[in-house]
Amino acid sequence: MRPTRAVDTEVSYYPFAVPGPDGNQARIGGAAVGSYPRSPTSTGSIHITGPRSKDTPRLVPGYLATDHDRAVLVAGYARIRAVMAADPFATVAKDVAPLPDPSDADSIVRLSLDHGSVLNHQAGTCALGPGGAVEDDLRVRNTNRLRVADASVMPTLTTGNTAAPSMAIGWVAGGLILG
């Protein structure tokens, strides 16, 4: 795992209740807890499959492809299991499905790949800069009148949510387009 002092994991806790038949009384209540790497090093790709806009692109997400991302995931999982085993959670929390032991890294990664979800926002598919697909003015290289103005131009994923940076990119793009 790379040495860092930056936040490397985000833990999400989602309490929920499923309304009963009358719409008021909860028939099921609980919470879901999960974690994911905040600065993942795994990369994926997107590929054009044909010349028409209706041709579905091929997505290769590359989730948990690096040792760093797997180590961060496993450490987050172990921490969540420890927190949920302590009071006050221990008195009310229970697993709804069999879960791997925190020391079984391969099973934790497999569980995540088979049943997990992606909570971070993808970025960088059209990264800007010298090695990217997009010029500094947000124009796609070797095209006419085509710009990209969303999180895909970010060369790396931000540690925080991508909403504000994406809005800033849109604001800059508007200024570039309007002159």
Provide key terms for this protein:
25% helix; 4 strands; 16% strand; 2 domains; elongated; single chain; alpha+beta; 179 residues; Glucose Oxidase, domain 3; two-stranded antiparallel ribbon
- Please tell me the CATH architecture of the largest domain by its name: 2-Layer Sandwich
Biggest sheet, open or closed, and with what strands and sense? 2 strands, antiparallel
The rounded distance between the terminal residues' Cα atoms is 45 Å
Number of helices: 3
Return the average pLDDT rounded to an integer: 86
Helix content: 25-40%
| Beta-strand content estimate | 15-25%
Shape: elongated
Short summary:
Helix content is about 25%, strand content about 15%. The protein is of the alpha+beta class and about 180 residues long.
Explain how this protein is built:
This protein has helices at residues 67-84, 105-115, 163-178; strands spanning 9-19, 26-37, 45-47, 58-60. By secondary structure, it is α+β, with helices and mostly antiparallel strands. The strands form two sheets. A two-stranded antiparallel sheet has the order 1-2. It has a two-stranded antiparallel ribbon with strand order 3-4. The mean pLDDT is 86.
SSE order and pairing:
Blueprint (H helix, E strand, L loop, with lengths): L8 E11 L6 E12 L7 E3 L10 E3 L6 H18 L20 H11 L47 H16 L1
Antiparallel strand pairs: 1-2, 3-4
